[in-house]
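Teaching assistant's notes for section 4

Start the section by putting this record on the projector. Ask students to predict, before seeing the second block, whether Iron ABC transporter permease will look compact or extended. Collect guesses on the board.
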Amino acid sequence: MLLKSSSLKLAGLLAAIILMLLLMCASVIFGYTDTNLQMAIDAFTNNNGSNEHIIIQMVRLPRALIASVVGASLAIAGVLMQTLTKNPLASPGILGINAGAGFAVVVAITLFSIDSTQGFNALAFLGAAVAAISVYVIGSVGHGGLTPMKLTLAGAAMAAMFSSFTQGLLVLNDALLDQVLFWLAGSVSGRKLETLVSVLPYIGVGWLGSLMISGKMNILAMGEDVAKGLGLNTGFIKIAIGVLVILLAGGSVAVAGPIGFVGIVVPHITRSIVGIDHRWVIPMAGVLGAILLLAADIAARYLLMPSEVPVGVMTAIIGTPFFIFIARKGFNAR
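Reveal the predicted structure now:
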């Protein structure tokens, strides 16, 4: 643990927030269209309708806000899932929740031609819920009940199944293939601010609920028998965590598509900085998740300029070595 005292943890959290705000400013300024800080300020204080000002207001600002919210949500969801399952590899991507939400949205697009924000949101939440419940049930079947290994295998199986169904649907509608494939890779590019606003109440509930149960998660992390002995209603806490994960992961997929690895990488980095107290882990993970996705999105603009790499590809490049490292070391989620 890097930061041991509460004052150091608070200072670290404030420093992370400042870094996040700086990256949001960088996200607004940097890109294919050449702009600078003064142009960004003028776009909001003295807008002259120029192409640069329009891009800053209508494209880059929503992109920065979406990357921040989605990164924070996926990181917090990863913390919740790793604590609930005692699985260091648990995350919305690895356990198939992102794939389930993504499949539901593709069904809406390809079979029902749904293009409304409300329709996307409802189906993303439904798909996330179905995937989460299915993985939990499958992972609990058999001798020994729910174990980290069985949960990981069940999640991988469900993710593969939903991905296969998604690819099959795309064959039926070639006209939407390019649009949907770019979305499925995970991207914050070209997303409208209205889409973020529509899911923000659900994501906000997910953030607030996570903070409210953070103290009880410390007790749950001690083990179920100990938690019950201390009077904790473990069944209620598990259900609450499941609902919060569905809100956070479903909302994120509805906005930006299924972005992987954020929920794996950030919780482990966070614990190495502030320890295992979820009252610090959850807010710090949220800020670090936003930082990771903002940085990945900025890098994605320059990797193959003038073309852009979907941010989900960048997070995979960052997260895959980390995933292998965790799997080989067998770190225990706290």
